[in-house]
Fold this sequence. Notes:
The protein is α/β, with parallel strands linked by helices. The chain contains 7 helices and 5 strands; from the N terminus they run βαβαβαβαβααα. Strands 2-1-3-4-5 form a 5-stranded parallel sheet, sandwiched between helices. Strand 1 (2-7), helix 1 and strand 2 (35-40) form a beta-alpha-beta unit. Helix 2 (44-53) crosses helix 3 (73-81).
Amino acid sequence: MQYLLFNGSPRGKTGNSEIILNNLIEGLSESPDVSTEVIRLNRPSAREEAAQKIVTADCAILVFPLYTDAMPGIVMDFIEKLEPYKSSLHKLNLGFIVHSGFPEGKQSRAVEKYLVRLTTLLGAKYAGTVIAAGSMGLSTKQQKVIRELGRRLPETLVFDTDLIPRASQFEELSKAMIPIMKFLSKAGLLNSYWNKILKKNGAFADRFSKPYSK
């Protein structure tokens, strides 16, 4: 059984998409006669190669992050390259793992609907979408769930629907958590990572600039 795994992160090997893929592969490797290949889409030539190879795969899984609710441009470029092959994908099981720093799973539900529609347009079989919210701090529990999803995937070539909800820490903030998040925001703790990046790039003083306001 051939599994083609796509890393749709611009960060390639250094991002959380790679960590997710490594856990998925660890689970898949428990099944006999499993062959996996990882293609990182952050190289333009790799996207064309990936589009050509997907025709021969039994199952393909696309893993990518969301940046401000949007998929990376390299993922959309790859998807557009699949159009010439859509008449040959009727035997393919196509699944997705979407992750983001947003703590709530519901932040990714819009893109999930798009991926269901995309699979239909490509003529492939839908293997499900796993939403891994809060992936900036990808927990041990989430990684364990992803490994188990990989372990069970060869049984049906579809992600286990009972396991999928466990990949996100929660679907939405509870009423009890909202005041806590407001406090953390006012204290500046939620922005500490981003402030660090701004300072590193010499842009901290300009963080409230509005260059297009006039």
